[in-house]
Amino acid sequence: MPSFTLPVFPLHCAAHAFDIALMQALVDAGVDVNAVDDEGRTPLMQLADATHYLSKPVSMAVQAAQWLLERGAEVNAVSQLGKSALAGGCTRRCAISCWHTVAG
């Protein structure tokens, strides 16, 4: 399980849980879908990492990723470690079904 440093970023946590309803509430409240955490990671990057840790259906990851992308999430944004959501997703177990759908 990933560990979070403070401050914890709510949209990143919602993306990690594939919680579209919470993501919607946060975006409606003014949170930027491309907000970066203290490591330069976006919610979409957090979602890509979550596909490895959570045992939820891949379809939930796809829906949450599509939701973020439809609202302007940058698939090619790069973190301070030089990783993108797309590259991160490609190392995870749902890479083929999830990221083919998202990037395709």
From TrEMBL:
Keywords attached to this entry: ANK repeat
Alphabetized InterPro entries for the sequence: Ankyrin_rpt, Ankyrin_rpt-contain_sf
ANK repeat extents: 10-38
Positions of transmembrane segments: none
The protein's name: Ankyrin repeat domain-containing protein
